[in-house]
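Alpha/beta hydrolase: structure, please.
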Amino acid sequence: MSKSRLLRLSLPLLVGAALAACAGRPEPPGPPGEGLERHLQGAYRPPARLPVRGWDAEWQVAGQAVEVSWLAPEQARGAPLILYLPGLGEGGRAGAQWRRAWAEAGYAVLSVQPQPYGRAVYSSPEAQAGVFRSLAQKSFAGQALAARIDVLEQVLAELRSRAQAGEPSLAGVDWQTLAVAGFDLGAQTAAALAGERSAGAPAPAGWRPKAAILLSPYVSEEADSERFGRIGTPLLALTGPRDEDPFGWVEPPSRRQRLWQGL
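Here you go.
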């Protein structure tokens, strides 16, 4: 008998024998989800959502109104602090979804927005005239950036003072472990705090965050890549080809990628 003929006869017999063996010794079913749980043992699992508490306030700092929003776990114990800095034209309560997610994960979250850069910009003469580009130019200028950092420093100092005085809503916060996150205008401030600056320029604050998140990172038209290379803080930058600036100041959107390329 030829080899091919032998194979044609043997293959059905082998398959049948295998099926018969399986049918004769069925595997007992395991608990529902047992296989899935086994595969997920080494996977990332988000922390349980913690109950949070918070408040919103308007403070007078450096001669201007500043919107301050606070969220933290109800039973905070050594909670790291995240500073969130909204974008141009946004109020202090912006970014509510991710601020709440961070607080529910165990972080204290402070949002700070000087009112001149918040919703009030839409009532300015430039906005009423439809001249948004010059409005953005003034808001992103170096002098305005320095003023925002100064306001942030004063807000932090006030909160630390209140925490030391025993204010219950500020209890359990680790004021030394601090990260910063910002969107648009806030991303410019966050990048400066993380170390971005031109050659020879002094550090903008007496401290540096442990990490930084830049949502729609700001890159000026004339910015050189060396200033981004001075960022030594662990950093997450998020942008994309449709990350457009409604004020028409950062054009084209691909310009935002220069920050990442210059790190």
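Notes: The mean pLDDT is 85.
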